[in-house]
């Protein structure tokens, strides 16, 4: 199914009056409101191919209907999201879950939906059918060179798929680590991993980046070989200029100060990409902004400050992606909510009075600093985000239109009631 311009225009016509009133009210107090709206229009968040199905937990999976059964249908789903919000203009593929059979056809299909190919993701955390060696005891860290070689070759293969599709980056997340003390020699595991990554790095085209994603625990529960931002930064620094750290919001130990991590990585020019999600406990992969919206705002505050300081373009110079999947909500509604939450946090952070904050910091005026931040955070910026959508030709209320058009019902009719999307 497709969502056409007329359906969006008709929906917007019904909501436009209220939108105009709310937006005008906000504009009264904001001198540079159009500049902010323009930044929101430009900001695109990539959607991972594996978030389009109702994901499972370790204990079970409750499949929903109308889920995409192949890459073409995944692209179509993200096309629907992008038509609704004009902010989801890229797809991130995971290999081998999404091996393209016909590159040209896939590229054309993505173009038709206005989608670019974001980072490619490799997978050495699962054994695939017909694979020679097992990753049970790790991949790039493995004590056996043959296993490491298999993992390296897989990553090079992923780069090749990405080149054909026009992607410009590879994200490597390794499940490597150990679950029991004594299982692993940490130094050797690090060195093996570094050498493996170096071989992958050597295969990167000149205009590509490699993102080294870290994660504190899971599936290993004693040590992870790329366990935190320090370790990731170590790999990225040793690898070279094309290597960066990738921050996934759910990959930290509880209460980690992620905004500080982001600030320092940006200072070093080593922050490459972002995986958005939210969590209460661990890598919960819940809808972005559903648990800790203030933290998300503080992270965006540091992102903006750090990017502006380095003259970086917000929309282009980092890889922005959602990495969430769970098993309760309609995944498309859930993704619309995540994108909205990201744009809200971004908009709020754009409203921070930087001069006032700098002054408060320079004079140790702690209370004033808090006032400045919370003034921005407590502004209801939803009319701003909606205005950006209106100007971009998207729906004023994407979730509402999604329901009005009964998108899920139509997908179920097209694809069936019992469907399972490849992925997590
Ligand atoms: C690991 C992770 C990583 C994977 C994705 C499926 O927890 O965040 O980014 O590629 O989930
Ligand atoms: Mn991730
Ligand atoms: Mn994760």
From TrEMBL:
Keywords: Isomerase, Manganese, Metal-binding. SUPFAM superfamilies: Xylose isomerase-like (SSF51658). GO terms for molecular function: isomerase activity; metal ion binding. This is Sugar isomerase R00627. It comes from Parapedobacter pyrenivorans.
């Amino acid at each position: 199914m497709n969502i056409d311009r007329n359906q969006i225009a008709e929906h917007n016509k019904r909501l436009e009056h209220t939108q105009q009133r709310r937006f005008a009210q906000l504009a009264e107090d904001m001198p540079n409101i159009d500049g902010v709206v323009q930044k929101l229009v430009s900001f695109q968040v990539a959607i991972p191919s594996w978030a389009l199905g109702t994901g499972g937990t370790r204990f079970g999976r409750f499949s929903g209907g109308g889920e995409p059964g192949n890459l073409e249908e995944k692209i179509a789903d993200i096309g629907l999201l992008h038509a609704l919000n004009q902010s989801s203009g890229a797809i991130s593929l995971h290999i081998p879950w999404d091996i393209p059979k016909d590159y040209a056809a896939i590229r054309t299909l993505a173009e038709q939906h206005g989608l670019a190919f974001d980072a490619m993701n490799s997978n050495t955390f699962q054994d695939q059918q017909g694979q020679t060696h097992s990753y049970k005891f790790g991949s790039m860290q493995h004590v056996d060179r043959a296993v490491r070689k298999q993992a390296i070759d897989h990553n090079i293969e992923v780069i090749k798929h990405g080149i054909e599709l026009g992607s410009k980056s590879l994200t490597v997340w390794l499940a490597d680590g150990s679950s029991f003390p004594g299982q692993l020699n940490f130094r050797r595991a690090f060195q093996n991993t570094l050498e493996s990554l170096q071989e992958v790095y050597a295969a990167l085209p000149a205009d590509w980046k490699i993102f080294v994603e870290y994660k504190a625990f899971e599936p290993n529960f004693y040590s992870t070989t790329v366990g935190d931002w320090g370790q990731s930064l170590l790999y990225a620094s040793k690898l070279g200029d094309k290597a960066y750290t990738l921050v996934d919001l759910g990959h930290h130990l509880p209460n980690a100060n992620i905004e500080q991590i982001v600030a320092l990585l940006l200072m070093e020019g080593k922050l490459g990409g972002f995986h958005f999600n939210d969590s209460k406990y661990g890598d919960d992969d819940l809808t972005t902004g559903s648990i800790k919206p203030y933290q998300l705002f503080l992270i965006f505050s540091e992102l903006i400050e750090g990017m502006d300081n380095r003259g970086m373009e917000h929309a282009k110079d980092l890889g922005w992606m959602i990495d969430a999947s769970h098993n309760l909500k309609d995944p498309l509604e859930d993704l619309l909510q995540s994108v909205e939450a990201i744009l809200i946090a971004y908009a709020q952070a754009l409203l921070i009075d930087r001069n006032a904050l700098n002054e408060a910091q320079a004079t140790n005026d702690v209370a004033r600093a808090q006032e400045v931040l919370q003034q921005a955070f407590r502004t209801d910026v939803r009319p701003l985000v909606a205005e950006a959508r209106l100007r971009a030709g998207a729906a004023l209320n994407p979730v509402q239109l999604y329901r009005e058009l009964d998108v899920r019902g139509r997908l179920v009719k097209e694809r069936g009631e019992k469907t399972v999307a490849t992925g997590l």
